[in-house]
Amino acid sequence: MTPTTETVVHRHPDERTAALQRRMYSPLCGLLTSVGGLLRTRRAPGFFLEGAELTGVHVLEGLPAPKPNAYHIGGFGIQPFESRIRVLGEAIERYAGHAAAFGGTFTVRHASYTELAAAGEPVLPPEAFGVFLPGQYERPGFPFEPFDPDRPLGWLLLPSLSGGDDERAWIPAQFFLLGYVPRQDEPWLQSAVTTGTGAHTSGPNALRSALEELVQVDAALGHWYGTGTGVRILPDARTRQLDAIIARRCAGRPRPEFHLLPSADLPGLCVACILRATPGAVPAVAVGLGSGGRLQRVMYQALLEAVGVQSFAAWTYVSEGREEGRDGDKDIYDLEGNVARYAAPQGADTVEKRFAQSTAAPAGSLPPDDERPDRERLKDIVTAFRNTGKRLYHADLTTVDIRQLGFAAHRVWSPDTLSLCFPGAPPAAHRRFADYGGFADRGPHPYP
User: Fold this and answer.
1) The pLDDT value given to residue 336
2) Quick one: 33 and 122 in the same domain?
3) From the record, what ranges are coiled-coil (predicted)?
4) Which helix (H) or strand (E) holds 132?
5) How far is CA 431 from CA 127, 132, 147, 210, 363, in A?
6) Which of 312, 333, 365 is the last residue of a domain?
7) Helix, strand, or coil here: 374?
8) Do 233 and 353 have their domain in common?
9) Alpha carbon of 360 to those of 178, 224, 292, 364: distances in Å?
10) What is the DSSP secondary-structure string of 168-222?
């Protein structure tokens, strides 16, 4: 009998990425209508930079067309496929947050909080919806309104990940879905952002990514607006692979600086990378974030994001003539003006002063890497939310077209952690700041 052999075909990452791009891109009807490389300045680190424009989800929402780069879709890496696959994955994540609101997955119920509570529906306590101080609402141009239990809102009934199997709660749709447009009679309480959204070829990994981002932003804002300090990471044998990349890609430029930003009580590592320009160049400083269980990989993620923020800051600062970088007192109610503000030397001083408060420690002395399988790390994060009494809600945002691409998208939200906020509208009344030593107003945060 003739023996049989099994043939295994391995496709080069460039080929796999190109195949995915062909399915996603079309200037007329693609999920992406534009994708390509970005030019970097001569003084910028030597990384591949990619950017893309999302399809017209604004048409579904009945809104005007956004300005270029409004969705902040970018990818960066030391190999071409690495930057491109990050662009494609991030585009799927952004698309999911908007398109899921119109795919029939969610039923929005319009009612007042008082009506829901009177009907015995599962609702969060009123303090979960008021995260700003009274004085913030009085500032000129402040975009949000106080919570009023008698005014109607759009609500989503979402399952809990941290509670029992059947536990659910009604959550304001404007907190959860990027594509949700409040009705005219509906107050705008706070803005939904992509914090807590993950896309991956594996559903569990998409959920893990979403949870890690939730923990990451909570730690980053807890550090920026809290009173605790981070840990400046000193390179040693534990970071030798990353150090080799930096030596090659950042030669002749200020060395990137990494800071561990500890979470108050949730697992995982959060690292901020500070990328400085050569003296006199703009942007003066950019800050990127990374999260996960393995320190060197998290530092690399933070470095890539810092490279992206640096490119975005230069584009915003120069092409749009932004003035936020020169006006330290201007309130910023978008996620662009803060980046431009810290591009200028005057604004960069604020970032330098905050991170100068960090203590220093060798990488080898920091918490060990979590080498467990991804599913175990996922369970560990959910268990930590449960054990610390934090409410955690979840939804699958995977639309039909996302599934056909071989991806899944998941979204998580917690009223008990800090989400990315408009830089001029920090949630100063959020109870979570008590776990970070209290709230300290240091001005707009530097994260896009």
Assistant:
1) 83
2) no
3) none
4) none
5) 9, 11, 16, 22, 32
6) 365
7) helix
8) yes
9) 39, 18, 21, 12
10) EEEEEHHHH-TT----TTS-------STTEEEESSHHHHHHHHHHHHHHHHHHHH
Q: Give pLDDT, residue 326.
A: 44
Would residue 447 count as lying in a domain? no
pLDDT digits (tens, 9 = 90+) for 279-336: 888 889 999 999 999 999 999 999 999 999 988 887 776 665 544 444 444 588 888 8
Q: What is the pLDDT of residue 6?
A: 66
Q: Do residues 139 and 93 share a domain?
A: no
Which amino acid belongs to residue 325? Answer: G
DSSP code at position 138? T
**Domain count along the chain:** 3
Q: How many CB atoms are closer than 10 A to CB 353?
A: 10
Q: Distance (Å, rounded) from C-alpha 21 to C-alpha 73?
A: 14
- 3-class state of residue 324 by DSSP: helix
- pLDDT for the residue numbered 318: 64
Task: Give me the DSSP letters along 24-35.
Answer: HB-TTTSSEEEE
The domain in which residue 337 lies consists of: 215-365
Which of 76, 102, 128 terminates a domain? The answer is 102
Same domain, 232 and 349: yes
- Whether 358 and 272 map to the same domain: the answer is yes
Question: Which two three-digit tokens encode residue 283?
Answer: 């942007």
Closest CA to 192 of 175, 208, 214, 169: 175
Give a yes or no: residue 237 inside a domain: yes
Strand intervals (E) in 19-77 = 32-37, 48-54, 74-77
Sign of CA dihedral 146, 149, 154, 157: positive
Q: Tell me, yes or no, if the pTM score tops 0.85.
A: yes
* 80 burial level (CB within 10 Å; 0-12, 13-18, 19+): middle
**pLDDT at residue 1 in the model:** 56
First to last CA, the chain: 64
pLDDT of residue 329: 47
User: How much is the pLDDT for 330?
Assistant: 56
Q: Examine residue 5 and state whether it is found in any structural domain, yes or no.
A: no
Where the chain has pLDDT below 70, the residues are 1-10, 39-43, 317-330
For 67-116, write each residue's pLDDT tens digit. Answer: 888 888 989 899 988 999 999 999 999 999 999 888 778 999 999 999 99
Q: Is residue 1 part of a domain?
A: no
Same domain, 263 and 314: yes
